[in-house]
Amino acid sequence: MSKSEIDTLYAEVQRRMIENGEWDRILHLLSSKLSESGWTDELLHRAKDNSGTMDPLSLRAILQQLLSHAQTTVPLPVKREITILIKQFVKEQFDK
């Protein structure tokens, strides 16, 4: 598949998820799981530590510093659970 075809497919899946409320449901579950695991608090503490040494203070710079750390530290069980939910949704939508 080309990049434009992948982008189109992604947009279609996202649209369907938003329309039927699945997007919000999964987002809420993800947020809850990350909070329960301590990931959210750890990321917040890291942001505070980084901002304390930053001069001048820049939200953009803080976000750039946190992005790769945030992506690589999501607990594997949380990733797996959310991935399974998304795969189930896609299967249900496109197997019809």
Short description:
It is built from 5 helices and no strands. The chain has 96 residues and is mostly helical.
Overview of this protein structure:
- Helix 2 (22-37) packs antiparallel against helix 5 (76-94) and helix 3 (39-52) packs antiparallel against helix 4 (59-73).
- The chain has helices at 3-19, 22-37, 39-52, 59-73, 76-94.
- The chain has one domain (3-94): ENY2/SUS1 (Serum Albumin, Chain A, Domain 1), CATH 1.10.246.
- The protein is built from 5 helices and no strands.
- The model has no long low-confidence stretch (mean pLDDT 93).
- It is mainly alpha-helical and 96 residues long.
Outline the fold blueprint.
Elements: H1 3-19, H2 22-37, H3 39-52, H4 59-73, H5 76-94
Helix pairs in contact: 2-5, 3-4
Keywords: Activator, Chromatin regulator, Cytoplasm, mRNA transport, Nucleus, Protein transport, Transcription, Transcription regulation, Translocation, Transport
GO molecular function: transcription coactivator activity
InterPro entries: TF_ENY2, TF_EnY2_sf
Distance between the termini: 21 Å
CATH architecture annotation name: Orthogonal Bundle
CATH class: Mainly Alpha
Shape: elongated
- Poorly predicted tracts of residues: none
Helix and strand succession? HHHHH
Number of helices: 5
CATH topology (fold) name: Serum Albumin, Chain A, Domain 1
Helical content band? over 70%
Q: How many structural domains in the coordinates?
A: 1
Kindly estimate the percentage of residues that lie in beta strands according to DSSP. under 5%
Rg from Cα: 17 Å
Structural class: mainly alpha
Mean pLDDT: 93
The description of the largest β-sheet is: none
